[in-house]
Amino acid sequence: MQFGSYPFEINTQIPIFSSVSFQSNLRTQEVGGGISLKTKDQDFSISKT
User: Fold this and answer.
1) Rounded to whole angstroms, what are the CA distances from 11 to 7, 20, 34, 37, 45?
2) CA-CA distance, 29 to 3, in Å (whole number)?
3) pTM for this structure?
4) Pfam families, alphabetically (predicted)?
5) Contacts of 35 (CB under 8 A, 6+ apart)
6) How far is residue 45's CA from residue 42's CA, in Å, rounded to a whole number?
């Protein structure tokens, strides 16, 4: 689809970014910092393509 000069998509049930947390503290060194990303299925989304 096109809105003005910007193409976009309308989707249902796609995984999206939900939250980020760190499993480590500042004293412990882990590769990647112990990062944990969570996703969830969004019921409706509009995204730029």
Assistant:
1) 13, 23, 31, 22, 5
2) 46
3) 0.40
4) RE_Bpu10I
5) 20, 21, 22, 23
6) 7
pLDDT tens, the chain, 49 aa long:
566 777 777 777 777 788 888 877 777 776 767 788 888 887 766 666 6
Q: Could you list the residue range(s) of the whole structural domain that residue 17 is in?
A: 2-48
Supply 49's token pair: 């393509």
Number of separate domains in the chain: 1
Residue with tokens 């409706």: 44
Residues near 12 by beta carbon (within 8 Å), at least 6 away in sequence? 43, 44, 45
